[in-house]
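Re: [ENG-882] Designed sequences occasionally contain unexpected residues at chain ends

Forwarding the minimal case from QA. C-alpha cells:
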C-alpha cells in the first residue's frame, strides 16, 4: 500500500504539469477528447475523495464529521452532509463483524468509481429511489438501478432524468402510494437565503391533509375583495401571513426555550430614529425598519434596541416581566445565534450558555457572562474539552482541545455586517 502523502505529492505535480500544458497544440477536434479525459480524471478523484470520507472518525472533542469536514475543506455544511451521504451509498460497507458488503447503489458505484458519472447523474438516481413507493420488491429495485447506471454512462443528467421519470411510471403504472410514502415526502424549506430585495423563496410539499386545510383557509381569506388589485398569488401570501400573525404570541402556544412563541427583533437607536435600515430577527431574517414599525403596532413581539455606536442596550420591550426571559432576549439580540465559530444555528434554536464558568462549577447567571450555543456545541463544552470565554468587546471566543483539526475564535456568520466597510455596528 502506497503512502497517501506520496500519492498526493504526485497528484499535485501532475496537476501543475497539466496546468502548464498548452491545449492549443492539439487539432481542434482533439481538444474535446482531451477535455473529456480531464473530466474523467476529475470524476475519479471525486470518487476517491468520497471513499476516503468513509474512513473519517469522530473522536473525543471532535464535533460531528460533516461539521469538521465543512470547516476543514471550507465547503458549506449542506455540501459536507451530502458528501457523507453519497459516500454511504457509493462505497462498500463494513458490518460490525468486519464483513464487507456491496454499496447501497452497486452499479452506480462502479460507474462512479470509473469516472463515468458526474454528481448530477448521482442526484438523478438518488431522487429516483427516494421517490419510489415502498411496495416495490428488491428484484425490481435492482433492475432499475442497473438500468439507470447503464444509461447514465452515455447520457447527460437531463436526459437521464427523462429516462428515470419513464421508469418510475413503468414500475408504478397505477400511481399507488401509501400514507407512509406520502409522509416521507412532505416538507417545507426555504430555498437559500433572502434575496437582495429582502424577499424569500420556499418550497412546500404538502400532504393531502395540509392541502385540504389550506384550501379551506384560502377560500375565505384569499378571496378577492372589491377594488382589490392584488393578484391571486399575492392574496394567498397575505392570507398565510394573517394566519401566522394571528397565532404568534398566543399563550396557548406555550414556550420555546423559555420564551413565548413570537418574534425577537433587534435594531439600533440610530436606525429606529431615522426610520431606515434593517432590523434582525433571532432567526436571522432582515426586516426593513419601516416594516418593523408597522408590524410592532398590533402585536406583542419582543424588540431590543441597541446604540449602534457603543453597542449598549438602551431599551427592551416585553409582554411579560420575566428576568430569565429578559436575559435571553438580550442574548438573542446581541449574538443572533450560536457563537461557536462557523455554526449556522440561529438564535431561536440556540441555548443559553455560561461562557466563563459553567453553572455546575460555580458560574454565575450574569448577563455579561452568558452567551448562546446550539445543543451540539453546548455539549462540546460540557463533555469534550472545549472552552469558552468572553472577550473585551463582548464577543465569545471558543477554544478547541488539543488535537482537534479546527481553529478556535468567534463566530461571524450571524454578523456579516462586520465585514462591510464603515460599519458602525459593534454588538
Amino acid at each position: 500500500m502506497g503512502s497517501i502523502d506520496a500519492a498526493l505529492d504526485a497528484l499535485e505535480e501532475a496537476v501543475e504539469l497539466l496546468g502548464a500544458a498548452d491545449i492549443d497544440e492539439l487539432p481542434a477536434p482533439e481538444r474535446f477528447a482531451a477535455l473529456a479525459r480531464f473530466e474523467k480524471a476529475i470524476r475519479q478523484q471525486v470518487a476517491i475523495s468520497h471513499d476516503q470520507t468513509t474512513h473519517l472518525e469522530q473522536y473525543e472533542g471532535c464535533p460531528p464529521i460533516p461539521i469538521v469536514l465543512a470547516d476543514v475543506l471550507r465547503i458549506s455544511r449542506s455540501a459536507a452532509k451530502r458528501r457523507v451521504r453519497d459516500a454511504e451509498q457509493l462505497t462498500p460497507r463494513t458490518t460490525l463483524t468486519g464483513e464487507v458488503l456491496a454499496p447501497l447503489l452497486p452499479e452506480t458505484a462502479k460507474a462512479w468509481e470509473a469516472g463515468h458519472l458526474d454528481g448530477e447523474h448521482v442526484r438523478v438516481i438518488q431522487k429516483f429511489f427516494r421517490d419510489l413507493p415502498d411496495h416495490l420488491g428488491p428484484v425490481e429495485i435492482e433492475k432499475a438501478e442497473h438500468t439507470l447506471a447503464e444509461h447514465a454512462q452515455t447520457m447527460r443528467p437531463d436526459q437521464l432524468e427523462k429516462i428515470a421519470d419513464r421508469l418510475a411510471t413503468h414500475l408504478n403504472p397505477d400511481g399507488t402510494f401509501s400514507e407512509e410514502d406520502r409522509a416521507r415526502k412532505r416538507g417545507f424549506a426555504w430555498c437559500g437565503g433572502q434575496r437582495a430585495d429582502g424577499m424569500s423563496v420556499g418550497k412546500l410539499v404538502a400532504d393531502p391533509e395540509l392541502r385540504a386545510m389550506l384550501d379551506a383557509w384560502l377560500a375565505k381569506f384569499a378571496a378577492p375583495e372589491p377594488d382589490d388589485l392584488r393578484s391571486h398569488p399575492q392574496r394567498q401570501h397575505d392570507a398565510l401571513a394573517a394566519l401566522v400573525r394571528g397565532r404568534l404570541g398566543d399563550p396557548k402556544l406555550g414556550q420555546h426555550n423559555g420564551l413565548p412563541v413570537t418574534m425577537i427583533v433587534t435594531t439600533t437607536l440610530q436606525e429606529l430614529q431615522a426610520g431606515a435600515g434593517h432590523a434582525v430577527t433571532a432567526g436571522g431574517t432582515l426586516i426593513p425598519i419601516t416594516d418593523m414599525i408597522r408590524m410592532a403596532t398590533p402585536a406583542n413581539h419582543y424588540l431590543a434596541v441597541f446604540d449602534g455606536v457603543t453597542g449598549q442596550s438602551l431599551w427592551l420591550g416585553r409582554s411579560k416581566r420575566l428576568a430569565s426571559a429578559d436575559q435571553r432576549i438580550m442574548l438573542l439580540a446581541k449574538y443572533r445565534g450560536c457563537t461557536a465559530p462557523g455554526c449556522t444555528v440561529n438564535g431561536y434554536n440556540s441555548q443559553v450558555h455560561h461562557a466563563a464558568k459553567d453553572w455546575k462549577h460555580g458560574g454565575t447567571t450574569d448577563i455579561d457572562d452568558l452567551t448562546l450555543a446550539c445543543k451540539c456545541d453546548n455539549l462540546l463544552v460540557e463533555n469534550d474539552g472545549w472552552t469558552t470565554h468572553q472577550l473585551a468587546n463582548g464577543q465569545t471566543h471558543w477554544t478547541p482541545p488539543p488535537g482537534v483539526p479546527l481553529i478556535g475564535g468567534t463566530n461571524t456568520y450571524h454578523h456579516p455586517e462586520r465585514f462591510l466597510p464603515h460599519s458602525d455596528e459593534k454588538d
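QA comment: On inspection the terminal residues look reasonable. Residues 28-53 form the longest helix (26 residues). Proposing we downgrade this to a documentation issue.
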